[in-house]
Design goal:
Order of helices and strands: EHEHHEHEEEEHH
Number of domains: 1
Distance between the termini: 7 Å
CATH architecture: Alpha-Beta Complex
Helix content: 25-40%
CATH class: Alpha Beta
Strand order of the largest sheet: 2-1-3-4-5-6-7
């Protein structure tokens, strides 16, 4: 298939939009956020039992709603000692919604409490991206980055669980990394680069 000139990215996160938009510009594709095309739509219920299921659910929903090819991602934190939790519930782990900073603080507090007496702190960030045209799944990619959960937060960059996600290889948390460094090793960066290769293969 030939690549479209525009792809809808199912996010309202300007940071994600900039990152993905810059990468897809390499193949001449403009990335448009939901604020431009689907701001008035209700969000789909993300009731899938995996990152893959939720990414596909969102991509299909917004592709059908806008009539354009749509890219969507679902991502989160999986902690080995917690049997993969918070997993697909990462954004709503503590049951708090609304202001991101408040929800992030609640989620991190619950995570640290859950690991209070556990020595195994290994974990990984996961990001799955799905590209859909209507109900047709054109491509999916998955990126992961390994790390450990530390009790005391470090760093001011990033969001979510970043201040508690320590990457031994770089001796810092993902919240201590500069954006360029984080994008180079992050789960989302890996998934986007893989999707970029899939798009090149469609040209």
């Amino acid at each position: 298939m030939s690549l479209p000139k525009t792809i809808v990215f199912a996010t309202g996160n300007t940071y994600k939009l900039r990152e993905v938009g810059a990468m897809l510009a390499e193949v001449g594709v403009e990335v448009v956020g939901l604020d431009k095309l689907a701001a008035d739509l209700d969000e789909p219920v993300e009731d899938g039992d995996s990152f893959e299921a939720n990414a596909i659910l969102k991509a299909r929903y917004y592709s059908n709603a806008t009539g354009q090819i749509c890219l969507a991602d679902d991502s989160g934190l999986a902690v080995d000692a917690l049997e993969g939790a918070p997993g697909v519930h990462s954004a709503r782990y503590a049951g708090v919604s609304g202001v991101r900073e408040i929800a992030d603080a609640a989620n991190n507090q619950k995570l640290i409490e859950a690991l209070r007496d556990i020595q195994d702190r290994t974990a990984h960030f996961v990001c799955v991206m799905a590209l859909c045209r209507g109900n047709e799944v054109l491509a999916t990619t998955r990126g992961e980055v390994e790390g450990q959960i530390i009790e005391d937060p470090r760093g001011e960059n990033g969001f979510g669980y970043d201040p508690h996600f320590y990457v031994p290889e770089f001796e810092c948390t993902t919240a201590q990394m500069e954006p360029e460094q984080k994008n180079a090793i992050s789960h989302r960066g890996i998934a986007v680069r893989m999707m970029l290769e899939r798009l090149r293969g469609m040209m």
